[in-house]
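Cross-check.
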Amino acid sequence: MAATATVSQEQTLLRVENLKKHFVSGGGIFSEQKVLKAVDGVSFSVARGETLGLVGESGCGKSTTGRTVIRLYDPTDGTIEFDGKDISKLPESQLSSVRRRMQMIFQDPQASLNPRMTVSDLIAEPLRNHGIGSKADQRDRVQELLDLVGLRRDFADRYAHAFSGGQRQRIGIARALAANPDLIICDEPISALDVSIQAQVVNLLEDLQQKLGLTYLFIAHDLSMVKHISNRVAVMYLGKIVEVATADELYANPLHPYSQALLSAIPIADPDVEVQRERIVLQGDLPSPMNPPSGCRFRTRCPLASKECAEVEPVLRDVGAGHQVACIKV
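Predicted model, tokenized:
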């Protein structure tokens, strides 16, 4: 699918508006209640057949966003509209039909695959949970999925611990595909893999998207890989999205100071260009989501920050061709 700057209502499969996920701790007799604002007012849309990359430093709320969208976490506030239906407040008893169409690929395939189950049982589990097909149908589907992700059929009776990290992630992908979902949330699916294997898994995901018409929310901190697979990219910082643009536009013309700093850290293959490029090194540590800065949350590390940045909370605004940025200096 060609990259598009904006997503029309007709194209939209997933629309998230003002999503918040806060975690409350303490509040007992001897402790004060604390609120961790992991996701604090996030809005984005994903078109059918599109890949939206969600990037940012560790701890910025990317994975929590993905897990809240798929309702592994209940949202604190906001709406999650999937295929025109608001699922943000659906009770657990009504989520089964939604989850059949929304699946997740996790970061660590070893931790997400039950070591007591065979590959066949792991891949077929979503089929059993949703009552899809007879046992014979499920066995046939497992064989089909092993072919689809590039694994041998005789792997079906073995256990996941017998395989390499890349093979285990292929098993996780097959499991996510079992119930024919429309949307797959890829939560750092390559970060636990060897660099030599990462490109193979990303290429597999792209091939599957073309064959099956899948839609991806691709969460990662590897910006070079995100550019390779994504149509559009959303940059997240401390629970907020600070910039959204097509992948080509963002990498060629980042507008938010945080995006500029992230992209300056990507190595360039040409040594002559690399040696002349200025690396933007952020000062200070990522603030705590329990006590985020006033105004712009990036101001404590931003080279452009002024007094006004502490007083005004920037909102995402379109600066042309669907390129959105949350910065009063742009």
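The longest strand covers residues 12-25. The chain has twelve helices and twelve strands. Passed to J.P. for a second look.
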